[in-house]
């Protein structure tokens, strides 16, 4: 548990350091508009919340600074559908990287189901549904050599059916458009 807390702190500090060190060059006067266009992305997401929760993820960025994110994640008998609104104030660019910091939040639709076999009664099923929430801050990195492939991480609070916790999220997205 101690190692995970230290890892979270290191990831957050590293993200802040990268964004802060690139900020002066990103806002230089006369910089041409970005040649990287990312609208619709699909990929994988892993959250380190009470163990690992993994699944598929989709992201859509509008022409303004807003976006939407949704997906499906699972762990054991839990199925989670996260739906989030995203916002980015601006992006940072270097010769090699396109960096987009963002904040987001939304709902988690949780469903838990289990089936057990009992010697006297046969199979009995149990299921439960709940609604949770999430709020996070993150950053997405795209190498200019691979403008459709993006890697990112986010840190936030997630409320699933089996508890609330801070979680580090890792994203890999391929932008189809």
Mind explaining what this structure looks like?
The chain is mainly beta and 177 residues long. The N and C termini lie far apart (40 Å). The longest helix is centred in the N-terminal third of the chain and has 25 residues, at 2-26. The chain contains 1 helix and 9 strands; from the N terminus they run H-E-E-E-E-E-E-E-E-E. The chain has an 8-stranded antiparallel β-barrel with strand order 1-2-3-4-6-7-8-9. It has one domain (2-23, 39-175): Porin. The protein has one helix at residues 2-26; strands at 40-47, 53-61, 66-75, 78-87, 92-93, 97-118, 122-143, 149-160, 163-175.
What topology emerges from the helices and strands here?
Elements: H1 2-26, E1 40-47, E2 53-61, E3 66-75, E4 78-87, E5 92-93, E6 97-118, E7 122-143, E8 149-160, E9 163-175
Q: What's a concise summary of this model?
A:
The chain has one domain: Porin.
What's the total count of β strands? 9
CATH class: Mainly Beta
Helix content: 10-25%
Widest β-sheet, arrangement of strands: 1-2-3-4-6-7-8-9
Q: Report the radius of gyration as a whole number of Å.
A: 19 Å
CATH topology: Porin
The dominant shape is: elongated
Helix count equals: 1
N-to-C series of helices and strands: HEEEEEEEEE
Q: Domain count, please report it.
A: 1
Instruction: Report on the biggest sheet.
Output: 8 strands, antiparallel, barrel
Residue windows where pLDDT falls under 50 for at least 5 positions:
18-32
Oligomer state of the chains in this structure: single chain
Average pLDDT, all residues:
79
Span between termini: 40 Å
CATH architecture: Beta Barrel
Beta-strand residue percentage = over 45%
Class derived from helix and strand content: mainly beta
């Amino acid at each position: 548990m101690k190692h995970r807390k230290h890892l979270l702190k290191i990831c957050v500090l590293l993200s802040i350091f990268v964004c802060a060190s690139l900020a002066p060059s990103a806002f230089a006067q006369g910089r041409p508009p970005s040649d990287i266009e990312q609208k619709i992305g699909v990929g994988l997401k892993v959250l380190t919340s009470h163990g690992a929760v993994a699944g598929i993820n989709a992201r859509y960025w509008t022409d303004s600074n807003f976006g939407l994110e949704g997906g499906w994640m699972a762990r054991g008998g839990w199925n989670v559908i996260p739906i989030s609104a995203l916002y980015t104030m601006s992006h940072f660019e270097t010769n090699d990287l396109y960096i987009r910091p963002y904040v987001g939040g939304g709902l988690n639709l949780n469903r838990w189901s289990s089936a057990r076999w009992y010697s006297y009664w046969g199979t009995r099923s149990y299921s439960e549904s709940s609604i949770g929430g999430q709020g996070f801050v993150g950053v997405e990195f795209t190498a200019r050599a691979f403008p459709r492939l993006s890697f990112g991480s986010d840190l936030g609070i997630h409320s699933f059916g089996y508890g609330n916790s801070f979680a580090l999220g890792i994203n890999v997205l391929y932008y189809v458009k």
